[in-house]
Task: structure prediction
Amino acid sequence: MKPIAIGICAAFFFAFTFVLNASMEASGGHWIWSASLRYFFMVPFLLVIVALRKNLKGLILEMRKNPLSWLLWSFVGFGLFYAPLCYAAAYSPGWLIAGSWQITIISGSLLVPLFYTTVQTANGPLRIKEQIPYKGLALSSIILLGVLLMQFEHAQGISIQTFIMGFFPVLLASFAYPLGNRKMMALCEGRLDAYQRVLGMTIASLPFWLLLSGFGLATEGLPNASQMVQTLIVAVCSGVIATVLFFQATDLVRKDMKKLAAVEATQSLEVLFALAGEDWDDRS
Result:
């Protein structure tokens, strides 16, 4: 229950992403800056935390072992997760983003065959491909189907282009985030704590964010002060607090694919927290 509880807490802080990104979009902020500034702002906070915990040297040594793997899976786990999510929020209605994000309920289970577990045999260690937890997947699929059916009436009122621009980026994000996280857990094998891993992946993803922000600077100009402040809040709440909590939760169950998929599924609760936050904001 502890990993699930931590995952739910992470979902609460992740919800700030949905609420504040919607606010930034409404005030004219461009999605490129909403995405890239978050990771730029995360770096100094995480550097201070990891340095105070005296774990910075260990992280640097670990990253030097497999720099290409760090770059690849950080790009997948952070770049292909957050940039598509911000893009979708800029061009599609909130209900479509919310409904599509519920795919996280099953995305972790569907990724299982991409990983192997090592078992000891009389002839030595043997790598066995993990199997999809079909019973859990069936139940999750029923829940997801119910959510999608609830969105069907709304979907009839939008164009195909709007649907594509909202659904497929979120679909990509829902698989990229757990895939990047799982691959990095397998690469580190428990040698790094959650703070180190978040900092390492943030640093390794910076080349992508620099390229994206360079494109944004050339095409859209600099972000306004309001967007910078709100992105800073997102960086602290979602980027630092939520990501560290989520990584801690997944670390606790990294050797059990069924429990890992269950922890990853808690992120679907982000939408409920986000809707509650928007409702409170409207009332206030």
